Amino acid sequence: MGLRELRQKRGLDIQTLADKAGMDRAQLSRYENGKKPLRNMTLGTALDLCDALRVANPRKLLEDTSPKENTDDSQV
After folding, report:
1. pTM summary value
2. Structurally, how many domains does the chain consist of?
3. What crossing angle do the helices spanning 14-21 and 43-53 adopt, rounded to 10°?
């Protein structure tokens, strides 16, 4: 479950989560929309988001539920 899904599951809008995590709404939006890679997030930011989302494991933020591109070349 990715960042947006976690936020929606908690019933939070983007501004509320940004406020709870002490970050800018635009920055959070860039993470959610993939314009800024989650893997480049600082540990402090990840922990602040985890606290705001009530998530114990920061790795939950990195889970991606979007479909992966098929890279299987065996059917070429």
Report:
1. 0.77
2. 1
3. 120
